[in-house]
Amino acid sequence: MSSDDTSPAALPEPVEDVHGDERWMSQHTRFVQECKDAEPDVLFVGDSMIQLMLQHDIWRELFSPLHALNFGIGGDTTCNVLWRLQNGELDNIKPKVVVLWVGTNNHLHTAEQVAEGILAVARLLTSRLPRAKVIIMGLLPRGERPNPLREKNAAVNVLLRARLPAPGPITLLDASGGFLQPDGALSQRDMFDFLHLTAAGYAAVSKPLSELLLQILEETPEERRLPLV
Question: What is the pLDDT of residue 220?
């Protein structure tokens, strides 16, 4: 993709209110309001992989004590997250770290386009929050057995790894490696519907994430502006 082309996954757009209950916009409005009242050190933003963290003890044990906000909405794509961040969800807050997890719902986009969409969100974050570091969570495998969507997610991770300078203010944390069994299957122990994580699945992902967050939060403001090693 040339520098003159914009990936369709990098075009901000709200979710169409096809059901007429304004549920998505109501969640976004609540997040904007939270920005007026909270002073988070860590911001989690993305789709259901972020949102459902709130339902597990791991959030209360590892992440809530870090003064974290959770701005996850199930079903969101990179386009939806871009729109939310451009429309108030970064106002009045200055987190030290942002955890971004989105992309698996970009069904209409190629792996190349999805990677560009994720990077567009990350670049927006570093532009609006120049003193923050951004952790991009790699996309996880999905589906009980090998399938095209799983292959696409793996390809997105490869593209992100190749395009993120190391060290840099944006880092990729790919915790996908431990989920596949020797025969290539996913276990319901880790993903109850072969997409969303169980408590055990979140525990596996959260351990390396928590360690990285603690490392960054212990840095001085001057050190935090330096690239991740």
Answer: 55
